[in-house]
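Could you join me in thinking about how sequence relates to backbone shape in a protein? We need material for that, and I hope you will provide a protein of your own picking. Once you have written the record down, we can walk along the chain together:

…
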Amino acid sequence: MLHGGPPGPAQLQHPRTSATASPQQANASRRAGQAPRTVSEQNNANGSDVNTAGMPPNACKTYWTTGECENIFSCKFRHVKAGTSIREQEIVPAPRTTLNNDDVADVSNPFTAPLPGVVLTPTQAHNRLKIYLKPDYDFRKAEDYYTFVTILQSANPQNKTWFIKDGMEFLQLMGDPTGSGIRRIQDVLSHQNVSADDPFSPDTLSFQRGYLPVLAYLSSEWVIRSTIQTNVNALYSLVNNNLDHIALTINRCMSSCMDRLSFDEPGNRQSGLHIFKALITPLHEFLKRFKPCGHSENLVNLVRNLSGWLEQWGNAICMFHPQFSDGIVSLSLEQRRFAVSQLTKSIKPLVDLVERSEATIRRAQDKPQRAARMDPATRQRGLLLQMEVTFQPPGELREAGPRHDNDRASIKDIRVVPPHSELACTTEAYLPGNIAGAPHHLPAESMERLLDVQFRLLREELIAPIRTSVGSILDDLGKPSDEKTQLGELVKKNGGLYKCEADRDSVRFSVYTDAKFGDARHKTPAKRTAYWESVGKKRLTQGGLVALVWKTAGGPPRVYLGITSSSFNDILDSAKKSENRVKIKVSFFDAEVELRILRRLQQSKKEERETKFLIESPAMFESVRPFLETLKGQEPTSMPFSDYLPLFNSSDLSQIKVAPPAYAHPQFDFDLRCLFDEPRDLSLRPHDPYSIARAKEVLRLESRLDDTQADAMVDALTSEISLIQGPPGTGKSYTGIELLRVLIANKIRPILLIAFTNHALDNIIVRVLEKKITSKIVRLGSRSADETVAELSLEKILMNVSKTRKDRAQGRAFGEMKRAEEAMKEFMNGITEENHQAVLLDAHLYSHYPLHHTELHEPPFWIRDLFEQSQNPEFEPVDKQSEPKSLLDFWRQGRDLAFITYGSQDTGSGAIVGGGRGRRRGKKRDNGDAPANTITDASNHPIIDCATWTNARETFFEESCGARMIPPTPTTNRTLDQLLIGPQMWNMSKSERDRLNTHLNQELLQESRHEQLEEFERLKERHREASLEWKEIQDKTKLEVLNNAVIIGCTTN
């Protein structure tokens, strides 16, 4: 049984009472999901029907009549409800000044509870916030800061008038990177005159009242647990931008408080219980996001001082006669010691994180030291010594340097998807031993080491098959062409199964060329469909990992990894349509290959001796990748149960002390009445040995549990980590169900219920429902065989959630995502579109060869006339595909040369209709059949005799140029250098034009390659960020559903 933390999420949402509740309570309209309205619509809706008598100026009509406004903090009008005066509505309750058990319990939370002080309702906060959101607002005196900070301090679940929707809306408003709210927070954090001893100066900001509450908000529950990471990261960027100033300010103010042995200021009592929590948590959250800043000297000094101050404060308040003026001394000594121990436990990860950053610097400067030889009496000496001899650390720590460009000492720097260099690397990968005492580059018995080992071994299991497959293919490609290889044989057969013997493992993988496998290329669609139906779950599965091997003549092969994104039905449809090919969609990880494919589509001629084929890996990459990304991004200091999970060098774990659950403060007790069939009062205090012994004795004698079940129950409830084991039939599942009953009866929630299989998970959920322990269950995953449990899946619940208004943030994110998709589509079309390429080539000519560009666009008059005639829509061209779209096309195709050359391909099609200026080439639309005496060639082009052709051309030139003379056709054959020097574009022969055009295209390709790749990467990143923001906002609804759950069930796979 794992007790992961306090029952905080249970407080994330509180039921609203009625539609006629006061402004501090909820209105039923929000729950009913009314249609959205803009600010102007809602304030003017039903203008003729709304009774606005007595409504104050600039008040929101909707809020006046209903007590609710959908726009919440974004509404531009004042929120006042009919029947209440502004004075009554703005009454603020006096702040609480004494500490209680809740304050002690809150210290074990992973987030910061609000500091003692004035709290506002959402309505009050809204009305006060408007002035601070004006773009030109400027704080004038300290009281202005305190009012703003009070608003921040009010946005928390402990303020019962606020609900999760209010908190999320407020966070989006304050965390908007371009908004005014974040600038006001910046103003507070960058204040130059902060003091803990001078609270009444108009130019001085109080550390306790004005500065510290902002840091507390940054680490409050609604911020830390928000799915909108864009807003959260924007807020913590403020800390990053003002890091040194913040560190120095805290150092100075805390030193002053510790010197005078009090955090109080006149009229404002403060306790170190809140002060230390409000400093430790945001600093830890900040370092998790901006790890390089752990090297900041000012921050390192602050963390070390903070640890020392905490120890000094803890010793002072726990004395028989406390030596520190602090409200916590009114609590029992047991409660004080518990609070100090929890704060000490919370600061340890922060200190470890800073020390680890410094150790990383030292390791980079020093040579890696191998692990000391292990005690042969307790270690697997032979294996460990062998590992010691062959140990080669990762990345830059290796004496010979990194194995490839993805070989890194820190897993945070490793790309989950292996690049080409890693796939082609022949050096053995770094795989750490997963046993205690094995050599490793990270400290022993640390969470950092455990995460490193788990990430590398899981990743190796995922990518080893594709790496072995690629290595075998590259080996075959590197052999002489006349040598027989397995790949060569498969290519002859248009693909097949490649069998590879790699060390002790045998790897088989599919190689696809023309996808010729059995009936996959059968002439009958039904046979092809039947084949893919039989292998559809084994080959080309959606989310499977594939590798594209691409080799051009004279160049080395390149390997690009991607994910099969075609569904099973997509492949079936493709198999029905073609007997020779199966069409699949692949999402590549590398933007370079996508750009390369686009360029390949630009080319009109097929590259010679080009080899491309697809390798399929048996690994389901997409199902494992989220775990790898989580392990990679997990901050070791934030891992739950870090005292128990690492690999300990000693096999004797009896010295490890298992603490009570984090939510069980000294005064906490379990009510165990639910374990008795007859009414019986029994409580259990996890910190009280007498209470533990008594609970076991009473449960053995009087409860539904037998002796061993009673002991297991009490041990599980009093330990933050517990294992219940026993032979079949001893009641393990029964004890687990009763354990759930106790936890839920004592409002410990949410409970994460994990089972190894879907069947086991469904069985537990069914029994919980049958025993009516709770019905607030959400099941993750949709593979439930039980119809009742299937209705509890997160997907089903989300489908039944009432469709509320599409909030503005969601609409903006969706719009940005669609705009990013359109920009990507436009970019890709631009690369492949012939007209776009002509525009780029013309621009290239203008930039690099201005004389050639001028010559091109100032052709002889007769050529201009011919080109304009070709663009006239009145006449239909013979060949629409090759019809020139620009003068550059006209020049490249040599249409002018064909016009003045008898016997060319253009002899017939370019004949003048009638002749003379203003006449048109081509065939006039609907001109009927050709004359009876006209002879046509195989392509139905009219063939005319030389005399007729000459007469038509002479007539054309006489009317166009004033002379019956046909210009000679250029036949020169100059070198490229000569063509680049001489700009006479229209005097070039067709072969010269081809030569120059090829050179210009190659130059353009090289010049634009880097720019296009950068632009492509930028657009992909823009789309990724927009999609991420869209997903984060979508996750808000999921979070609201999960926050209401008592049990969240899932499987390990």
